[in-house]
């Protein structure tokens, strides 16, 4: 079947079904082509990072992007990929009333799940110093509002806590348990600092999402290790994005220096490979089939 007919996004139900497995890996995808490549590599879910949305625009992860900008990227991904997409909505783009609108907008535009964090605005990258948290009761109100706003019960509300860096390990445990009691489907515990902390947190709070971002506070553990500890979703937010940035930096530098691409042509994806990935021939075949159909204008 061609990509045009076989790319229906699996959405919230698809993600819920995946969670029946021991664990789910969700690499960061930041546009349509990255989602297609991740899907072809065998991944069954994807993650749209707030930092990734900002980064593609050349902006920092400091709450400077808008909900509409996130939705724009989300729509491009779900229109071309089957992968259920977990979306980073930062603090919900405002207060409790804004969270209601955010949930409805993300759900209606194809997200399978969202995560909302308990930082004050402007939020910071979870692995940088200087974070500040909102009071627990304010986060609880956001979680309740989010769960009540969704129309599809399969749409997941994941609560992220950055409490480890601000209130210590026990504070993070307390908040995680509280957020689950408020109705969150899962806890995203950010920036644990050792393997032992990952193990101990999973003993006290469940179900969990783990963030394996590079160059941060957390050790880089394998998905298998984390799955055995009890973590259900493991995200890799910017892995492919960072790799693409380094490649672009090197290619642009070499192109400027040598004024030709002949020295690095072997590092480029061929036209044939690119066309195969995006299903170029499928589109041509669909066009051919449609052009062969006869339309009786008299009946119409």
Question: What do you see in this structure?
Answer:
- The protein is 47% helix and 12% strand.
- Helix 9 (223-229) links the parallel strand 7 and strand 8 (231-236).
- It is built from twelve helices and eight strands.
- By secondary structure, it is of the alpha/beta class.
- The chain has an eight-stranded parallel β-sheet with strand order 1-8-7-6-5-4-3-2.
- The protein has two domains: 11-237, TIM Barrel (Alpha-Beta Barrel); 246-292, no CATH class.
- The chain is globular and about 65 Å long.
- The two termini are 29 Å apart.
Summarize the structure.
With 300 residues, this protein is of the alpha/beta class.
List the SSEs and their pairings.
Elements: H1 11-18, E1 24-27, H2 32-40, E2 46-48, H3 50-56, H4 67-78, E3 85-88, H5 96-108, E4 113-117, H6 136-149, E5 156-161, H7 163-182, E6 186-189, H8 195-204, E7 208-211, H9 223-229, E8 231-236, H10 239-258, H11 271-278, H12 280-292
Parallel strand pairs: 1-8, 2-3, 3-4, 4-5, 5-6, 6-7, 7-8
Helix pairs in contact: 2-4, 5-6, 6-7
